[in-house]
Write a structure and sequence with these properties.
Structural class: alpha+beta
Largest sheet: 4 strands, antiparallel
Number of helices: 6
Low-confidence stretches: none
CATH class of the largest domain: Alpha Beta
Strand order of the largest sheet: 1-2-6-5
Order of helices and strands: EEHHHEEEEEHHHEEE
Shape: globular
Mean pLDDT: 95
Number of strands: 10
Oligomer: single chain
CATH topology of the largest domain: Ribosomal Protein L22, Chain A
Radius of gyration: 17 Å
Helix content: 25-40%
CATH architecture of the largest domain: Alpha-Beta Complex
Strand content: 25-35%
């Protein structure tokens, strides 16, 4: 099974990354899914999306959880029955989870040129320190950072451009800080990022 990477961020937080090379049939083999998950995967039209969903269940198995240990609240956020915090992501041929004692968010994105076109929708002051020589990689980090913060915020209703500022960074830093600034919610989080095989992994934690 292709567990691509495991990151032990600290004693409280671990990140696992899966490279999705198996077929849907192979991913289903020996995997227990509860009724809710079976219904959900049956509603997915894309096999790539189904494989991403199944690969997340394999990542859970890597750290001793089953599909039944995972549940979702009405706002769509995933939770673990033992009270640990979890965030989930998948994009094309990679998926990832982060599990922690604290609030966390994670995102994996394929580096694609289309992000330049949508940048005005989520980039504000970040333009002031954007790397001119590698715009796609820079924008993908910014998007991933804001997506990770969005997953942390408890109430939703966030505008990426206005409520989630990212502090200046260089791609070589592999870390920065990001803020959630909305109404009375005003908190800063550590942002970590790295690239592999044309993808960018970003996660946010306290």
């Amino acid at each position: 099974m292709p567990l691509y990477k495991k990151i032990q961020h600290d004693e409280h937080t671990q990140i696992l990354v899966w490279e999705i090379v198996e077929s849907k049939v192979d991913l289903l083999a020996g995997l227990f899914l509860n009724k809710r998950s079976k219904k959900r995967i049956g509603s997915m039209r894309s096999e790539l999306q189904q494989r991403g969903f199944l690969s997340i269940r394999h990542l859970l198995r890597q750290v001793g959880y089953t599909d039944s240990d995972l549940f979702y609240t009405e706002d769509g956020k995933p939770h673990l029955k033992d009270g640990k915090h979890i965030s989930i992501t998948h994009s094309f041929t990679f998926s990832a989870i982060v599990i922690s004692d604290y609030e966390v968010g994670i995102d994996v994105e394929k580096n694609r040129e289309k992000i330049v076109k949508i940048a005005p929708k989520f980039v504000a002051d970040e333009c002031d320190f954007m790397a001119k020589e590698n715009v796609i990689a820079f924008l993908t980090v910014v998007w991933g950072a804001k997506e990770s913060l969005f997953k942390i915020h408890p109430d939703g209703g966030l505008l990426f451009k206005h409520h989630l500022p990212i502090e200046p960074f260089k791609l070589s830093d592999q870390k920065t800080r990001g803020w959630i600034k909305k109404d009375n919610f005003y908190e800063v989080y550590q942002i970590y990022f790295e690239t592999f095989k044309g993808f960018t992994l970003v996660y946010a934690t306290n």
